[in-house]
Amino acid sequence: MTETIAAASDRPNEAPEAEALNGDIAKLRDAVLEKLTYSVGKDRNAASERDWFIAVALAVRDRMVDNWMTSVRGNYRDNRRRVYYLSLEFLIGRLLVDSLTNLGIVEPMRAALASLDVDLEKLRDIEPDAALGNGGLGRLAACFMESMATLSIAAHGYGIRYDHGLFRQTIADGWQHEFPEDWLEFGNPWEFPRPEVSYMIGFGGAVESIPRNSHPAHVWHPSETVEAVAYDTPVVGWRGKHVNTLRLWSARAPDPLKLDVFNSGDYVGALADQVRAESISKILYPSDSTPAGLELRLRQEYFFASASLQDLIRRHLEQHGDIELLADKVAIQLNDTHPSIGVAELMRLLVDVHGVDWDRAWEITVATFSYTNHTLLPEALETWPAPLMERLLPRHMQIIFLINAKHLDGLRAKGMEDAGKLSAVSLIDEHGGRHVRMGHLAFLGSHKVNGVSGLHSELVKQTVFRDLHEIFPDRICNVTNGVTFRRWLYEANPHLTKLLVETLGRGFLDDASQLQKLEPFADDLDFQARWAAAKQLNKEHLASVVADRLLIKINPNALFDVQIKRMHEYKRQLLNILDTIALYNEIRAQPMRDMAPRVKIFAGKAAASYQQAKLIIKLANDVARVVNNDPTVRDQLKVVFLPNYNVSLAEAIIPAADLSEQISTAGMEASGTGNMKMALNGALTIGTLDGANVEIREKVGSENIFIFGLKADEVAARRARGIDARETIAASPQLREVLESIADGVFSHDDRHRYQGLVDAITYHDYFLVTADFDSYRAAQAAVARRWRDRKSWQRSAILNTARTAWFSSDRAIAEYADQIWNVPVSRPKD
Ligand code: F58
Known about the structure:
Elements: H1 18-40, H2 49-78, E1 82-86, E2 90-93, H3 96-103, H4 106-114, H5 120-126, E3 130-132, H6 136-150, E4 155-160, E5 168-172, E6 175-179, E7 192-203, E8 206-210, E9 217-221, E10 224-236, E11 243-252, H7 259-263, H8 267-270, H9 272-278, H10 294-320, H11 326-329, E12 330-335, H12 341-353, H13 358-368, E13 369-372, E14 383-385, H14 386-392, H15 394-413, H16 419-425, E15 428-429, E16 435-437, H17 438-444, E17 448-451, H18 454-462, H19 466-471, E18 476-478, H20 485-491, H21 494-504, H22 507-510, H23 525-550, E19 559-564, H24 573-589, E20 598-603, H25 611-628, E21 637-642, H26 647-653, E22 659-662, H27 674-680, E23 684-687, H28 693-700, E24 706-707, H29 712-721, H30 726-730, H31 733-743, H32 756-764, H33 770-789, H34 791-803, H35 810-822
Parallel strand pairs: 1-4, 1-12, 4-11, 12-13, 13-17, 17-18, 19-20, 19-22, 20-21, 22-23, 23-24
Antiparallel strand pairs: 2-3, 5-6, 7-10, 8-9, 10-11, 14-16, 15-16
The protein binds N-[(cyclohexylcarbonyl)carbamoyl]-beta-D-glucopyranosylamine.
The site of N-[(cyclohexylcarbonyl)carbamoyl]-beta-D-glucopyranosylamine (F58) has 18 residues, from α6.
Organism: Rhodoblastus sphagnicola
Keywords: Allosteric enzyme, Carbohydrate metabolism, Glycosyltransferase, Pyridoxal phosphate, Transferase
Family: Belongs to the glycogen phosphorylase family.
């Protein structure tokens, strides 16, 4: 991919003195050459671009190490409470420009490399994305790691070092295909393997009860043991001062092979244990919609939760020597329920291993943990079959039963007798075979539970945790998500950043709230022109990416209408496709009508097993083929589906977006973070009152956003009335025409009935209310088109979006976690 070629002067977020700069250039050049020679083992003349990339990354990593050591020493010296962010996903993307930016050496490095005839932008493109996550939840964890370092919080991230991250998506004949991703193929220059830091993780076996004076002691004898080995990646904050650690675990078999079996000639059998053990960190959970690979998933969750807890307890005891002090010195954030088996594991470690009495152990556990909920979707709320858990983690099952018994006994003692209520708050779901409710376990084991937007947190109280919220009314709070501006504005959009620095000075780089000083420029025509010029450069760049990848020419003067996110029915890419078809019908009906040209841009992956989402990808591609090849359409409408959406592609698309599609069924998108990234980069949002869109509207003002559709309570009421959409469709001639054209095979000549099922589904069973919101969405899109024609007014709104979205910085979000949940201090980097 050809990334933005930003000239030196386009990187304004650093301006060291010229002399220092020259000194630095020489030092960086020497450092890179040294790495190339002694670490990569290549001569300058023989080095490939990949060799140069590795050499540069190693030289940059060296620059972090001193401050890393200082940060680690400072964390020990200051005795501060540490924060541990446990997440099965860290969707990091590339690190080269990110690290250079935060260290403030993009330009010196660019110059150093230029003096060696090497182009930094080419090296940037060589780096594979670290795609250790599915979507928003994983990317949030990566943004949070950067902000925790920026705010000098003594924080560690813990996760799994998957050999293979999120699959690579190709589109062939419009259909999605999945291929394994191989980010470690050429090694990972950012990480430090720590083979000496490893923990034994048990599975299966039996629990022995040994009688003691008061209570019996429990000894778990696992039947299988897997070793968790640490790999550390330094995470550097803005201005490079504070550096934290992301520690990812890799699974190893304690014995590499069974020698006797090997010697007997059974080579495959000899390696069987190793393969089974290592499968734990082999691949990122492939599905976000089906309970695939159930047992492997539970093994992954326990593996990383146990390794992380053992590691942090070791560190705590080394530093403080007293397990009783754990909650004073440690805060653990559970990123969704995936690490929530950690609640039972911490109880096991405290009670069985460290001899803490049960009630005190529970106090410590609850004071230590907090939990973030990211979804209300019932299929994404984890429950584990009790028999599976009993077999894989017998001691944990006992502990969960005991936590539950004490919890329910306590409620009965307080007079709660209603069996329905008790069963609703039980850790065990007795319907349809016993299941352990991991959300409930995370809730009970935490002192704070947060949702990720104002609306979502309220819905968490009213729906998934309604009954628990009644019992613990102070436990649920809200921390609206945020995104790191370093990656999503300064690095992704150097043209806009340069304009902002020239206009506002450099203060906003450290303190995003200063972006509001942009407001007075919203009506300044000269500023508007410069603003438009920056946007235009980004659009031209995206047009070149589209041309390279799809051989489709798009017009950079058209309105870029962007929907980029995981493919899911609730996100309603289908609604956007229906709008596209309606637009197409309008153009065909009046080919000579003068309309504002639009490019509909889609990108996103569907879970491999999610057939309906894959069919929607196919439909988008079928519509694209028909529309793009119809001569009557001319340049007025183009449709593109960019394959293999990932962090790097997002960095190319977001700065170029004019319109940001955030059109989920209200009440279903917990927050969204793409909505924040695009608004920050001056796109106007078309969206429902869902997730953080609600807060984006509050901040940017309702005249600078296009809101449509049913609200969350109206969605609930509508569903209660029934979701047969025949009447709705009958009442909307435009919608009828669109659906008929799809069902008739206008976009699928090769297989006329391909979409019959899809059309039937939304006709008779429109759970996501695509049809109910169609007319109001069309009206909002018409309002978008009118505003776009009044370019000054559009520009004004776009500028105000950037000026008013500073609040969506992940620095703000992390400061709220630090204050409301973790009780740790923060400090902001200064020049
Ligand atoms: C996302 N969840 C939410 N889950 O959908 C989004 O609204 C929110 O902004 C974001 O979290 C951050 O809070 C999400 O990305 C997953 O990817 C899960 C991965 C594991 C399986 C189930 C889905």
